[in-house]
Specification:
The protein is α+β, with helices and mostly antiparallel strands. It has 25 helices and six strands.
Length: 709
């Protein structure tokens, strides 16, 4: 056992080494391709190799960790974690039952992975990264767009799928070449290195999954859902907190930029010229120069969309400066600006020249945050305000892009967590428990079959679960219980067999005591028991009386057959062994052996509780001289009213009497005896019993010859 566990540990280490080598190969080839600006990625060679050798979870781990490390020299690699994880999943599934060396499989894999990864990576590059990663691919896309007039995205999508097919075909060829030199024995060790029990075959795993699917909520499904839910909740919570903090900080930063821009602009504007700017605009000598300085301030203030100078009067906000924007025309000098509804409550304060805090609004110009700084002259009088507005709609759009990027980065890790949960619950819980459950069910179904019980115990001990937790303790407890149970059943069987032999010995002894008084019945009990077994087996084979002919019934008939004449113990010797013909009175005495036999067996039944086989002994002792037509004795029963065991014994008893010599007659030939049985079928005997007895004539002759000699 220790050697087996040690081998499993070595296989796990080998499996881990393969994963590390796969990651190293991916990172190295990706770095070379990035430095040489090659139009291939080469970051899935190790992923495909590891997934085909070790399975789904090692492949996904290789893919996600590869992208995490590649981010050190190519920050965009993080966005492709989900794509490469999907490639790992497809590789593990595709090569589980297929061989890489087949050309058809090579083409199918290359086409499928190229289309899927090409489509996914094209969407990521086009909508998130601003276009193709490779400069040559970007130039080719632009040239084709101008030449054909087709959509640039569709052209890039097609080109990217072709590129990915080439890349995945090259990666698959490299992975195939690397794994080709690995010995089959080592491949088996790598594939089985993740098991925490005796490795299951693909068919056994499917059988386990089928068993689990019949459960309402299997352990594997429940644990996977729980771990996945926890992981998803943590990712959502942490992402939400991070995004909220980032948004809050970014919003604060933009507002601070707006406040600084307004303050700086207020310092460069000549307060004594505000009235002239409003009245004469561009005719004022330094108007254009001041406007250029304001434009420069806006351009350097990140996030500021609107920058303007106003003077708040009783009739409204008069514009001195208003810089143009792409989507909103600027007010001209002297225009009265339409004010945001959120600003109206602050206008009285601004008429007085008071400072106001930034104001959030979602009215005329969309969702904005307005920051105002007063312009003061040399006498500290407020002559106007500089307004700097930050577009929060733009900020929200930026945050949406940020959230999408975060989600894309985390999706690869989420798939990794999901795969780990699926793998861990399967290897550590579901498969061990299902394996034990199937073994226990087989043990229960084996019943008292000692050979099957011993074989199941051997298989159960060979499962070798090593999860190092409560499941392993349960496994060892079940193994010990099964072993002890099998030994107890073995001991019970030995005791039962000894008891049965003793009982059979007593039955034979009782029968011999009776037989020893009858000088003409040599080996009668042995022959009749053998004939009874032939008839019972024949009826069972042909399906006659199927509801009655259970294995126990047949056993009871054969075991108790020697007692059918036990009532003769009460017949006087002068009547029992009379050489001549019996008188009517003597014949009546002989007939009483059936009644006496029944009483003897009923007393035995009442004395020995639970020995049901004696009930058939009673039936045979009492009714083996009854006839099918109802003319027999002692009760003149007829047809199937006569117990089946007695109908069987009637034929066995008469046939042996006919074929054995008696003091009052010689033995009849077997053929003559058979003819007499045929004549009695449906009259004296059950016709079905006669039929099966005659069908087994070779066996009957063999028994007759054995004992008559």
């Amino acid at each position: 056992m220790r050697t087996h566990v040690h081998k499993m540990s070595r296989d796990s280490i080998l499996r881990a080494r393969v994963v590390l080598i796969g990651i190293a190969v991916n990172v190295l080839l990706s770095f070379i391709a990035f430095q040489l600006d090659l139009t291939v990625y080469l970051d899935t060679v190790g992923t495909i190799a590891v997934a085909s050798l070790g399975g789904m979870f090692p492949g996904i781990f290789t893919a996600v960790v590869t992208d995490l490390l590649c981010a050190a020299f190519n920050e965009e690699a993080l966005y492709f974690g989900l794509v490469n994880a999907l490639i790992a999943i497809f590789s593990a599934w595709f090569f589980k039952d297929r061989k890489i060396r087949k050309i058809k499989n090579f083409i199918i894999f290359t086409a499928a992975t190229g289309i899927v990864s090409g489509t996914a990576s094209a969407l990521i590059q086009w909508w998130m990264l601003g276009g193709p990663q490779f400069s040559s691919l970007r130039a080719l896309t632009t040239a084709l767009e101008h030449a054909t007039g087709h959509s640039g995205f569709l052209l890039f999508l097609c080109l990217n799928m072709v590129l990915n097919m080439f890349d995945k075909g090259l990666s698959l060829a490299a992975a195939k070449g690397a794994t080709h030199f690995i010995p089959d024995e080592m491949k088996t060790r790598i594939r089985n290195g993740g098991w925490r029990q005796h490795p299951l075959s693909v068919e056994e795993v499917r059988a386990m999954n089928s068993v689990s699917s019949h459960a309402g909520y299997s352990v594997k499904k429940r644990m996977t859902i729980v771990l996945t839910g926890i992981a998803l909740a943590l990712i959502v919570i942490m992402s939400g907190i991070s995004i909220r903090l980032y948004y809050k900080n970014l919003k604060s930063e933009r507002i601070e930029n707006a406040k600084n821009a307004a303050k700086f602009a207020a310092e460069i504007i000549n307060p004594d010229m505000i009235g002239d700017y409003i009245a004469f605009g561009e005719e004022v000598p330094d108007y254009d120069e001041t406007r250029h300085m304001l434009q420069s301030i806006r351009e350097n203030a990140v996030g500021v969309k609107y920058l303007y100078v106003i003077q708040v009067r009783n009739d409204g906000c008069h514009v001195a400066f208003d810089l143009d924007t792409e989507d909103t025309p600027a007010y001209k000098p002297g225009d009265i600006m339409r004010v945001e509804e959120a600003l109206v409550p602050y206008l009285p304060m601004m008429q007085k020249g008071e400072e106001v805090e930034p104001i959030e609004s979602n009215d005329l110009t969309g969702w904005i945050m307005m920051a105002y700084h007063p312009i003061r002259d040399q006498y500290d009088r407020c002559v106007g305000y500089v307004g700097a507005d930050v577009s929060l709609s733009y900020l929200a759009g930026y945050m949406g892009d940020f959230i999408l990027r975060v989600a894309l980065i985390l999706s690869g890790f989420f798939v990794l967590i999901l795969a780990y949960a699926f793998w861990m619950t399967g290897i550590y819980t579901a498969y061990p428990i299902n394996t034990m459950a199937l073994a226990v069910e087989s043990f229960v179904r084996a019943g008292a079959d000692q050979e099957r019980l011993d074989e199941i115990v051997r298989k159960m001990r060979a499962i070798s679960i090593r999860t190092d937790d409560e499941v392993e303790r349960l496994y060892h407890a079940i193994c010990s219980m099964a072993l002890n149970q099998a030994e107890q059943i073995r001991n019970i069987r030995r005791y039962s067999e000894n008891t049965a032999r003793m009982q059979d010995g007593l039955i034979i002894t009782m029968a011999d005591l009776v037989e020893s008084r009858d000088s003409d019945t040599g080996a009668h009990v042995q022959k009749t028991a053998a004939y009874a077994k032939i008839i019972a087996d024949g009826l069972k084979k042909k399906g006659y009386y199927a509801e009655k002919l259970t294995p126990k019934f047949v056993s009871d008939v054969v075991r108790s057959a020697p007692l059918h004449d036990v009532g003769k113990i009460n017949i006087p010797d002068n009547v029992l062994n009379k050489a001549g013909k019996l008188t009517d009175e003597e014949y009546e005495i002989i007939k009483t052996h059936t009644v006496v036999g029944r009483k003897i067996m009923e007393k035995a039944i009442s004395t020995v509780e639970g020995e049901n086989y004696l009930k058939e002994a009673r039936n045979m002792a009492a009714y083996h001289h009854e006839r099918w037509d109802g003319k027999g004795y002692p009760e003149s029963l007829h047809g199937e009213v006569i117990p089946l065991s007695a109908r069987i014994m009637a034929i066995a008893d008469v046939f042996d009497a006919l074929t054995s010599p008696r003091v009052y007659k010689p033995a009849f030939p077997i053929e003559k005896a058979i003819e007499m049985l045929k004549e009695g079928a449906g009259k004296q005997f059950d016709p079905k019993c006669v039929e099966v007895f005659i069908d087994a004539l070779p066996e009957v002759k063999a028994i007759a010859k054995k004992y008559n000699e």
